[in-house]
Design a protein that fits this description.
324 residues; alpha/beta; TIM Barrel; two-stranded antiparallel sheet; 16 helices
Length: 324
């Protein structure tokens, strides 16, 4: 999940000089911000420093990233006319700074794999339609239910953009890609199945020929996990609200699982996190396809020293398992 962020003193120093989008669109700064957590923490993979909103700008969506709020859209999408006005995106032409950053990260980190990412179509659509973050996604759901042709056209446009963005990242050097469908957990299963699943399945279908792991994650998706698996990812990311062993029991052995330590645990100090980490590792010790991770991103108030202790603990327990 999120590696670089406000918990890092070095990141806070950079943010005093640059706003978020300045960092995200500057390849040299992206390389620095992406690599520092790997070098400081010793994690097993790097995560590209970017934002899910980045590919929306060349589509014609005007937005700002407002501190403590999130993306704020100047021109929300409301009608079929708005959807048809969205421009197609060619990553090599429109997002070269992302691809240049990937090249620099891969060069700097050598054998450490890099995970690229993009937002899921529903999550991107929710920002585009609501005009920013939302508690109930009222306008988004109304569009999905009352204007199915407009919804379908919007999702088709986002499938094209997300797929192209991820494919370009893979070709630039990303060893795996993750789709963050952060807010899809706001949907009932029947709405996910009708209004999201076909489009997610198409994204994973387009990525399949490239042969890299495809990860799918959403927040609060306990009721959607089986449907998310049916979309075709190789790895399912799980937040902390569902026991990991229960997830394995529900979906079977056909997919890898990633997660799902509560990120708030890490903010409470090592004594508060060590037992939960060991318990999670013990439960999944015999699982053939499990990746330890947090159940969402690292929180700003996290002590980097505690985070490093968790990484070291997971590595020690992993070596102990391998020796058995």
């Amino acid at each position: 999940m999120r590696q670089a962020g406000r918990y890092q003193p070095s990141y806070r120093e950079l943010r005093q000089q640059h706003n978020f989008m300045d960092l995200a669109t500057n390849p040299e700064l992206c390389v620095e911000v992406s690599c520092r957590p790997v070098e400081d923490l010793g994690v097993d993979a790097a995560i590209l420093f970017s934002d899910i909103m980045v590919p929306l700008a060349p589509m014609g969506i005007e937005f700002t990233i407002k501190e403590s709020v999130g993306p704020v859209i100047a021109n929300p999408v409301a009608t079929m006319h708005d959807v048809l006005a969205l421009a197609p995106v060619t990553p090599e032409r429109d997002l070269p700074y992302v691809l240049d950053a990937i090249d620099g990260i891969v060069t700097r980190l050598g054998p450490t794999p890099l995970i690229g990412f993009a937002g899921g179509p529903f999550t991107l659509a929710s920002y585009m339609v609501e005009g920013g973050p939302s508690k109930n996604y009222l306008h988004t759901k109304h569009l999905m239910w009352n204007e199915p042709e407009t919804w379908s056209a919007l999702m088709d446009a986002l499938v094209d953009v997300v797929s192209a963005h991820l494919i370009a990242q893979i070709k630039a050097g990303a060893s795996a890609v993750q789709v963050f469908d952060s807010w899809v957990g706001s949907l009932a299963p029947q709405d996910y199945e009708a209004g999201v699943l076909p489009y997610m399945a198409e994204i994973f279908r387009r990525l399949e020929p490239l042969g890299v792991p495809r990860i799918y994650f959403g927040v609060g998706t306990g009721s959607l996990l089986e449907l998310m698996v049916s979309a075709g990812p190789d790895v399912l990311g799980v937040d902390w609200r569902v026991p990991m062993a229960a997830v394995r029991g529900r979906i079977g052995p056909k997919i890898a699982l990633q997660g799902n330590l509560d990120p708030v645990r890490v903010t409470a100090g090592y004594d508060a996190v060590v037992e939960s980490t060991r318990n999670l590792l013990a439960v999944m010790r015999q699982d053939p396809a499990y990746i330890f991770n947090l159940g969402h991103g690292v929180l700003p108030m996290t002590d980097p020293h505690v985070l490093k202790q968790v990484v070291d603990l997971v590595h020690r327990e992993g070596r102990r398992r391998d020796a058995l």
